[in-house]
Write a structure and sequence with these properties.
The complex is a heterodimer of chains A (112) and B (118). Chain A is an all-beta fold and 112 residues long. Chain A contains no helices and 12 strands. In chain A, strand 5 and strand 6 form a beta hairpin. Helix content of chain B is 0%, strand content 49%. The chains are: A mainly beta (112), B mainly beta (118).
């Protein structure tokens, strides 16, 4: 079955530290991959997406993600986290005739 | 500007009542979707529609119903059969399914509707 897994439910990092949020997918066809961020009480904001080409994609707010087909992963990274990055992050995949499927999300807390 | 409008943003209903959430888009998109969000569960697909007068069940369709009589509208009814209806509901649309990844096939989301059943 097609699925998206975000192994970490909650991550806490210090402000200024680096961040990596993990995402693994299970799809038979070519996947198109997304990372979204959601602040409390808000809708979704697209951070970045991968469709094809360069496997390292740059997004907004200083985020980047790397697509690794051999590992079925699309991990999100940021070199230096700011307090305003505290939010929930969702990895999502769409492929062929299958609607967008989301992971369960990773909640990021940032401490001083 | 084109986009998706969900209404109402906040809704309170008594247990046992049906409630309908509105989703309207002016993007001329063929495909529309309804998701439900619960803490720790991510967003789960309720129903989706690829074309007018056609729709398919998603992962958690029980207790919900939809209609697609017009291209721009995809209302979701939360029926009294839905055991835990209190949640955040999000509507989305894409130009079409199957997804091609072409530039114009972007995913648009509404701002969401908060439903509280008491």
């Amino acid at each position: 079955a097609q699925s998206v897994t975000q192994p970490d439910i909650h991550i806490t990092v210090s402000e200024g530290a680096s961040l990596e949020l993990r995402c693994n997918y299970s799809y038979g066809a070519t996947p198109y991959l997304f990372w979204y961020v959601q602040s409390p009480g808000q809708g979704l904001q697209l951070l970045l997406k991968y469709f094809s080409g360069d496997t390292l994609v740059q997004g907004i707010k200083g985020f980047e993600a790397e697509f690794k087909r051999s590992q079925s992963s699309f991990n999100l990274r940021k070199p230096s986290v700011h307090w305003s990055d505290a939010a929930e992050y969702f990895c999502a995949v769409i492929s062929g005739n299958t609607p967008l499927v989301f992971g369960k999300g990773t909640r990021l807390s940032v401490i001083a | 500007d084109g986009g998706i409008t969900q209404s109402p943003k906040y809704l309170f209903r008594k247990e046992g009542q049906n409630v309908t959430l509105s989703c309207e888009q002016n993007l001329n998109h063929d495909a529309m979707y309804w998701y439900r969000q619960d803490p720790g569960q991510g967003l789960r697909l309720i129903y989706y529609s690829q074309i007018v007068n056609d729709f398919q069940k998603g992962d958690i369709a029980e207790g919900y119903s939809v209609s697609r009589e017009k291209k721009e509208s995809f209302p979701l009814t939360v029926t009294s059969a839905q055991k835990n209806p209190t949640a955040f509901y999000l509507c989305a649309s894409t130009l079409r399914l199957p997804w091609t990844g072409l530039g114009e096939n972007t995913i648009y989301f509404g701002e969401g509707s908060w439903l509280t059943v008491v």
